[in-house]
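Re-running the complex after MR caught last week's input typo. The corrected sequence lines follow. Everything else is unchanged.
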Amino acid sequence: MAEFGQFAITGVTVGMVYALIALGFVLIWKSSGVANLTLGQLVLVFSWFTYGMLVQAGFPVWLGMPLVVLFAVGVGWLVERIALRPLIGQPILSLITVTLGVAFFIEGMVSFIWPKSVAALPRLFPDEPVHVGAAVVSQEYLWAAVISVVLFVLLTLFFKRHRMGIVMRAVADDQMAVQACGIPVAQIFSRSWMFACALAAVGGVLMSSIGGITFGLVETGLKAFSVVILGGLDSFLGAIVAGPIIGLAENVGGGYLTPLTWPGVREIIPFVIIVIVMFIRPHGLFGERRIERI
Amino acid sequence: MSLPTGIRSYSYSQDMAVFRTRTHWVWLAVLLAFLFTGPLYWSNYWLGVVNLIGITVIAATGLNILTGYCGQLSIGHAGFIAVGAYTSAIMTNRFELPFLVGLISAGGIAGLVGMVFGIPSLRVKGFYLAISTIAAQFIIIWVINHWTSLTGGFVGISVPPASIGGISLVSQASQFYLIMIVVIIVVFLTNNLARSRVGRAFVAIRDNDLAAQVMGINLFRYKLLAFFLGCFLAGIAGSLLAHWTGFMNAENFTMTDSILYIGMIIIGGLGTTIGPILGVLFIRLAQQGITFLSPLLEDTFAMPAGFTTGLGPMVFGLAIMLFLILEPRGLAHRWALIRASYRLWPF
Amino acid sequence: MLELSNVEVSYLGVIRVLHGVSLRVDDGQIVALLGANGAGKSTTLKAISGLLRSEEGEVTGGSIEWRGQKITNRNAEEVGKLGIIQALEGRRVFEHLNTEENLLVGAYQRRDRSAVRDDLEMVYQYFPSLKELRRNTAGYLSGGEQQMLVVGRAIMASPQLLMLDEPSLGLAPMMVEEIYGIIRRFSREHETSVLLVEQNVRVALGIADYGYVMENGRIVLDGSADFLKHNEDVREFYMGLSATGTRKSYREVKHYKRRKRWL
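Corrected-run output:
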C-alpha cells in the first residue's frame, strides 16, 4: 500500500506539471485553432535558458526566474510574428507543419548554444523530503503541484473575469465577429502565444528541477499532447483533470507493469493512452464535438 | 501535365501518355544514361550519397501519397520505415529467408502497421491524426528497443547484404543498381496512381473529405489504402536501407527523421510526382554541404562546439518555415515555371 | 459624415461585386440600404468596416471618407477605433460566453472603465430582457434575444456610426418591431448615425430618414424614406404591394412581367 501511495503521489504531482504545459497548448488552440507541436522543444529551450541564467550567468533566483519568463514571452511573440502570422487563413496542414519547422529550429539552436547534453539546475526548493502518510515525497514535487494548481486557478479566473481573457474565448468562437467589434485579432493570437510560452517556461523549470535538464524534456512536451488529447483539445478543465490521470497511469501503471513486461514501460504509457483515446473517444473527456459543414 | 503548344493528340492513349513528345523521350534517355553510367565515374563516397538519396526518395514518395495526395499528415514516417527495416533484417538474419521475400514482406508488414495506426483517421483529422502518428512513432521505436530477443534491442541487429538469384550485392555500385531500379519503378507507379481513379479519390478526400464521402467515395477504404500504400513504400525503403547499411539500431529512426521527411515533401511540393525527388535532393545535398562546410567554418571562425550538430536542424527548420510561408507549392512549382519559360522561350 | 464615392470592390482580384457605389450618411441620420440577396449590401458594409480583407476582397476603386478622413482599405481595427462598428449578419454571438461577457467583448477597446459600466447599464435599459439573461450562455438564447445581444454588443463599443446587417433576419414580426424601435431610440438619444442593411423594406423605411436601393452592385434608386415608401417600384418589388396599395395577387399575371422603371 505504501508503494501505491508513493506511485500515486509522484504521479499526481508530475501530472500537474504536464497539465500546466498542456494549458499552454489549449490556450493557443482555443484562441487561434493552431496546434502547437513545438511544445516539447519550447520546454527544452526554456529549461536551458534557466540553466544559462542561474548557473552560467550566476543570477540569483529572484532575478533569474523573471528573466526566464520574460525570455519565454519574447520567444512566444517572435514565433507568432515570424512563423504563424504570415500563414493566417492557410490550411491546417501548413499550420501544423510550420510549428514542426519551428521545433526543428529550436532544437538546433539548443544544441548550438548548449552543446552539453545534460545539466542540473541548482536547488530551487528545500532539500528535505515530506512524509505524506507512508509515502515520502521530495519537496520539488509538492511545489510543482502547488504552483500548477495556483496557475490553473489564476488562468481560470483570467479567462472568466479579465476582459482580455473573455476576448480570447470570444476569438475562439467567432474570429470575424471579434474583428467586427474593432478588436485586433492578430494581437490576441500574439498574446496567447506569449502566455503559452510563459506556461511552458514554468513547466520546464519545474520538470528540470525534478529530473535535471536532458533531451528527454522534449518528451515531456509530447506527454502534454496526451494530456490534451485525453482532456479534450479545447478544455482547460480537461487539461487539469487529464494531467494527473496521465501522471498516475504513467507512474502507477509503470510501477506495477515493469516487473510483468519490459523495463521502461512507463515511457510508453502516455502514447498508448493517446491511441486508445483516439479509438474510443477522439474528442476527449471534456472536449467539444466539432460540427462540420460542407 | 503541361505541353508545348501546337501538339495534338489523336488517340486516348496518346493523350494519356506520360512521355509525349520526342523531346521528352530524348531527355528521359539522357537522364537514364547519365544515372546508370554513374558508378563509372562517381567515387564510392558519392555513390553512397546517391544510394541514400534513392532510398529516401522511395520513403518520401510514400509519405507524399499519404500526406500530399490524401491529406493525412503523418509524423511517424520514420517509425514505419523502421518497421520495414526490422522486418527485412529479421527475415534475412534470423530466419535466413531470401532478400526478395524480406523486401516484399517489409513493405507488407509496414503497410499493415500503418493501417492500424491509420484507423483513427476515419474519425479524426488534422492535429489529432498528427498526434496519433507521433504516438505510433514512439510505440514502434519503443517496441523495437525492448523486444530484444527479436530485434536485438538497443544493441542493434546486423543485416546480411542483399542478394538476388545467388548474386550478393555488396559493393556500393551493385546496391546502386538495385536501389535505382526500385526508385524508377516506384516513381513511375505513383505517377500513374495519382492520375487514376484511386488518385483522384485521394485528392478529393484531401480537399474535402465530407464532400468526397457525399460523392460516394468510401472514406474507410481509401484512407486505409492511402495509409497502406504510404507505409508500404516506407517499408520498402526501410528494407533497402537495412541491407544497404548492414547494421542498424533504432537510433536511425527518430522523430527528428520523421519531421525531416515532412520537410522534404513540403520543400519539394506536396502532391506532385517530382516534388519528393526535388525535396530529397535539396535536404540530402544540404546535409552534405553542412557536413562539409561546418568543420571548416568552425575552425576558421572559432565557432562554439555545438555548431556542427546545431547547424543542420536550424537550417532545415528555417527551410521548412520559409518554404511554407514564401513558396507553399514547393520546388515542384518552381520547376514547372522553369519548364514553362523554357517552352515559351524566347517569349 | 460618411461618404462613399464610386466604390468598386473585387474579390480575389477578379470577381467584381460593387460597380461604383456612392452613398452618404449624415451625422445622426439613419440610412437604410435596401436590396435583394446578392445585391452587394453586405459587401458595402464590409468595405466600410475593413472586414473585406479576411474574405480576400479589396476596394479597387473610389474612396470612402469618414469625417473628411480617407478610410479606404483600412483594416478593421483602425476603422473600429474611429467609432465605426459593424454588427454582422446572422446573429453571430459568441456562443460559449454568457450575455454579459458578450457585451464586454464589444467594449474591449475602450479604456474608461466607469463609462463602460454606465454603458452596460444603458444597454440593459434599452434591452431589459438581456438584463435578466445576463448570466445565461449566449448560445442558448432565443433568436430575438441573440439579435438584441448583437446590437447591444455593437452599442457597447460606443459607436459614432453603427452599421447593422439585417437585424430582422429570421425574427418574428413583433420582435422586429421591438428591435427597430430600440435602434431608433438609441440613434435619436445619442445622435448616432446608423447605416442599416435590410431586406425587410417596410420596417427599415419605418425608422430610416433616407434610403438607397441596390441591385447587382449598383445603387439604382435613392431618396428620403417618405419618397421611397411611396415609390411605385419599391412598393411593388420590395414591399409586395401593387399600385393601389392592396396586397398583390398572383392571379393578375400580366403584372408579372412589368419592368422596373429605373432599368
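None of the earlier attempt is carried over here. Residues 2-94+158-230 of chain C form a domain with the Rossmann fold fold (CATH 3.40.50.300). Chain C has ten helices and ten strands.
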